Amino acid sequence: MREFPLTLSQFIIRSQAASQGATGEFSTLLTQIGLVGKLIAHDLRRAGLIPILGTTGATNVQGEAVKKLDEIANDDFVKVFRHSGCVCAVASEEMERPIMLPENWPQGKYLLLFDPLDGSSNTDTNMPLGAIFSVFKHGQTDRLPEEQDLLRPGTQQLAAGYLLYGSSTMLVFTVGQGVYGFTLDPDTGEYLLSHERIMMPDRGKVYAANEGNVHRWPSGVKKYIDSLKVPDKAKGRPYSARYSGCLVADVHRLLLSGGVYLYPGEVDKPEGKLRLLYEANPLAFVVEQAGGKASTGTTRILEIEPKTLHQRVPLIIGSRLDVEEAEAFVQGKA
Ligand code: AFP
């Protein structure tokens, strides 16, 4: 009989059967993330034909111009999860405050944080885009969550992952037992298991950073990037530069073939650009599960105690040895 890859639903059913006491609620959550991915991918395939490109004229909580697709993607997440029954609060990079969902309470015990459209500067030029999600359990059984309940270190995440809208649409996630990648089959509309237990190389040959910012970087980061360009056969240098403007796409490349991504703090903006709860934490969980590392340069991302919902953080993420080397430069030890 012809072998057929596992569908996302089959994979979830199998994992649920192996997990004692599972109620199926968590499985629903992953299926709903898959649904959001289908909705957004459906729109993106028609970008240029339907009026979804360009900006809305508004500015988001981060002070950035809101793209029409930012708004569409955020609405898709909210609409799907409002009716999912499995989530009692959602927080998004695009929304100033989280939305509590009393209609899902008390059954919906999960908290969902997401960046609905990562790399939105790529929208109008047919470049890759992504979405990133992070899942926690609401520990209190007697009350709806409050904003404070969403401020948890990344070590407490139950699941995290991303959707990548590239030449194909992929859903990649971890529930703390390895990293699995599913590719959306456009013919059947099913996500099929295409990447089982992804493990990243300990070292890569690629770095990803917006070098246009070099004059704003601290000297340790500058020296590290310079060192990657000096030929050194033993260390596989010089490295190649590959930067897409979409963190999901860059991290996906690193996950499959190794290397390092940096969005460091800057001299006048030490907190950097990326959001801890919506970008750094979920991707750090995925990358650690694949054998890699994620750091601010001095601290493990997953151990940071968040103080605010939209907190920013410097990020160095990728292959273990590459991140360790970057940390040594940042800390002045190399
Ligand atoms: P958005 O999610 O706001 O589009 O930002 C994209 C991003 O967070 C990340 O995906 C990129 O790697 C990074 O910012 C690009 O930032 P620069 O344009 O400053 O290089």
Helix and strand layout, with pairings?
Layout: H1 8-18, H2 25-44, E1 55-59, E2 65-67, H3 68-82, E3 87-92, E4 99-100, E5 110-118, E6 129-137, E7 159-165, E8 169-174, E9 179-185, E10 190-195, E11 206-208, H4 219-229, E12 240-241, H5 247-257, E13 260-263, H6 276-289, E14 293-295, E15 315-318, H7 320-330
Parallel strand pairs: 3-5, 11-12, 11-13
Antiparallel strand pairs: 1-2, 3-4, 5-6, 6-7, 7-8, 8-9, 9-10, 13-15, 14-15
The chain binds 1,6-di-O-phosphono-alpha-D-fructofuranose.
What's the total count of β strands?
Answer: 15
Q: What general outline do the C-alpha atoms trace?
A: globular
Radius of gyration: 19 Å
Bound molecules: 1,6-di-O-phosphono-alpha-D-fructofuranose
Q: Any low-confidence stretches, pLDDT <50, length ≥5?
A: none
Tally of helical runs: 7
Sheet with the most strands? Answer: 8 strands, mixed
* Structural classification: alpha+beta
The overall pLDDT, averaged over residues, is 94
Strands of the widest sheet, in order across it, are 4-3-5-6-7-8-9-10
CATH class of the largest domain: Alpha Beta
Q: In what range is the share of β-strand residues? A: 15-25%
CATH architecture of the largest domain: 2-Layer Sandwich
Query: Distance between the terminal alpha carbons, to the nearest Å?
Result: 57 Å
CATH topology tier name of the largest domain: Fructose-1,6-Bisphosphatase, Chain A, domain 1
CATH-level-4 superfamily name of the largest domain: Fructose-1,6-Bisphosphatase, subunit A, domain 1
Number of domains: 2
Following the backbone from N to C, one meets helices and strands in this order, namely HHEEHEEEEEEEEEHEHEHEEH
Share of helix among residues?
A: 25-40%
